[in-house]
Amino acid sequence: MGSGGALHLNSLQMDTNLKMKLVLGIESSCDETGVALVQMRETGVPVLLAHALYSQIDMHQAYGGVVPELASRDHIRRVIPLTEQVLAEAGLTLKNIDVVGFTRGPGLAGALLVGAGVACALGAALGKPVLGVHHLEGHLLSPFLSADPPEFPFLALLVSGGHTQLMRVDGVGRYELLGETIDDAAGEAFDKSAKLMGLGYPGGPALSRIAEQGDPASFKLPRPLLHSGNLDFSFAGLKTAVMVQAKKLVAARDEADGAQQTGVFETLPLQTRANLAASTEAAIVDVLVRKSLAALKQTGLKRMVVAGGVGANRSLRARLNAECARQLVRVHYPELDLCTDNGAMIALAAAMRLQSGQQQASEVYAFDVKPRWPLDQLS
Description:
By secondary structure, the protein is α/β, with parallel strands linked by helices. The chain is built from ten helices and ten strands.
């Protein structure tokens, strides 16, 4: 747990002549509890005062994935202590808060209800308005807290958990869906492929680490929908191809050794596993980059944002940076500690919606959540 982002209270002299709205953000959509404080200057510059994050990875590892009931219960335990932590770091109290923002969706219903319930209870107790935020909008706007913030309009590649989307972004709340995955998302392809390789949960980061030791050209894996003529994605076929290749490698090893078939991929030599991991990562990155370049060409945009957990992938960043530099396109990313789910992006999205006049905070404390909530339906 700790604070992160580009602009912090301790690195800025607060101008008391400027009226600054203080937003508390609460994120609880899945397996990470995030709380943050963001202030928006009248000049439009967001200031991240403090943020704290608790990850449930250790708890879910034993089950090989997120257990929704356990996730919800853990959010209940963490959200109040994290709120106290960020207030203490910023040197503020609950009375200083102007608005409480929370993730309304999409996500796990039970987990979302925890954050929404706490946020609305705080708002009612303090007599302050509340604002439900779209989780993906938080990711999409998170680079505005970076040292190199973007400007509207831009192309956005959202690669977060179960989502892979290309969006045209003309302003806060002005989103046009250009393409999305029709089955598995890129993050799911990473995690499911990693699980086939015995790399545990969450598998994406582990696969990327072992891929650094491998040869990405070792195995010829498919690039689904690469020549489809549209901007949609599909990664289910790639996952299946990885599974088939892994089984072939294990069968060949067992036959060569004259051993009984084990079916255990993780017993293969490290270099073999690293080569398959590198080939898998290369296939995913290749699709993401080439579809992004096609979207840039189609829209004529010269600025791009990459957000979401997969946006932290080194190979993806290196390839995108190189390709976009040749096209004279600027690419913007969140700070690395704000790529995964966090409260800072929720507080920021709430603050930017309020500042843009796109939405008003509410003093009605009855709440609901939206486990399924397409971003292009958000006005």
